[in-house]
């Protein structure tokens, strides 16, 4: 991290502590909330996924790979890689056979391997999109949230809630990481 602290700023003009003005925020919807539990879970997950992408917008590979504070290896790029790994891991819970191999290797390799190279950034985005789609597809086969799946009989609802919880927690980290990079604040 640099010794120079960035000045806090926002693109928003209505509320200076928001990421974007409400009228321009793609996460906002003018309609009513979704009907039903599954639709609500879909909506929350989609919004957190979009929030993470927004926190990474406009950054170069060095900024994406910039670590938080020692000894942490956390970075925005590491978060993208970690969440790709998480999507695969949650999908492993419903696989009838053994778990799919790790994407990036041993423990914490998702963060440790987040280096400031455009190819690594591009790969992280591609990995995340692929793993999200695969997990979404696997869970679409189980629309009953009370259904028990996999060898441990985990409820589908629990898989959904844990995925949302993981994204929510890491979007909080992304807020702080982004603010340290260029001072941009966000809700």
UniProtKB/TrEMBL annotation:
<dbReference type="Pfam" id="PF04978">
    <property type="entry name" value="MST"/>
</dbReference>
<dbReference type="InterPro" id="IPR007061">
    <property type="entry name" value="MST-like"/>
</dbReference>
<dbReference type="InterPro" id="IPR034660">
    <property type="entry name" value="DinB/YfiT-like"/>
</dbReference>
<protein>
    <submittedName>
        <fullName>DinB family protein</fullName>
    </submittedName>
</protein>
